[in-house]
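fyi for ur records
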Amino acid sequence: MPAESISGRGATRNLTPTRFNLGERTAEGDWLDQVEALDGVTRRRTTVTVERPKSIITRNRSPDIGFDRSVNPYRGCEHGCIYCFARPTHAYHDLSPGVDFESRLFAKPDAPKLLHAALSQPGYDVAPIALGTNTDPYQPIEERWEITRSILEVLVETRHPFTITTKSDRVLRDLDLIAPAAHEGLAAVALSVTSLDPAISRTLEPRAPAGRKRIAAIKTLNEAGVPTLLAVAPVIPQITDHELESIVAAGAEAGARGGFYLPVRLPHEVAPLFRAWLDEHYPDRAAKVMATIRSMRDGKDNDPNFFTRMRGSGVWAELLRTRFEKAVKRYGLGTTRTVLRRDLFRAPDGQQLRLL
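which gave:
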């Protein structure tokens, strides 16, 4: 196949997976050069592969995360956020955490049926199911596949509590499901806003909706009675940290019930991809950005330890914490923490879905 242009993608390269001893994929001889000469360079297109997992609920035991189970309808994410901590998961498929993660996607159309079966199990212990914990449930391919919506239909049918975390105003499409659930105390949403500057967003998260659209979505959700949080995540020193106060102000004006922030994390293959992105788009400050990140991560690119990985340490981390707390107080951002009900759950009737 012809060599592909990755213009418009977040990652600037396609790293070969190395952590699982997978073989490097290279063209034989000068075959690739001959194809380029004949056919030119084509734009990388997004492909979707159907995945048939045997189960759909992922269990989590991390003590610094506020949920113990999640459902992910997709693998990979077309939003292309260069900082995405989920990028390394693509290496499990012998695919690159780089451009492959943004363009070689996996969809799980059986997710609603698998969820229905899991909720039907005798003795099922009810707790909120988190959507959007790995890759975004409202990335562009959801418009066609509608797997997230089908999952919500199962959760609404069974009156099961759920949370949604997304960077997309596409969540508003499902307001007809989310709002009634929220009115019963069964649903909450968090919108992640990294930057309000289109010039930054175009390279940082090139295929995600603009930050202002996400702020508008917060307003619409809250006006519909859906408790919605503002997530300033991640905060990137010398790239987006100067916007911290303005993002908090915008979220507060939109009526966000509460908010939180997270310093950028660079696990595994994310670190070299992020460095390459800095060299491409911010060469004038790349060294300073990485030096600041390392100062918050005990001198390393990443800190995998529980609790500190979510807030960082050192002078810079303390500065971010102080700025965020002052901004919350100054602009009146809510501090509500929504507790979802578990007592309304009703197990599915029989083996068939009523809504699907």
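The chain has 13 helices and twelve strands. thats all i got for now
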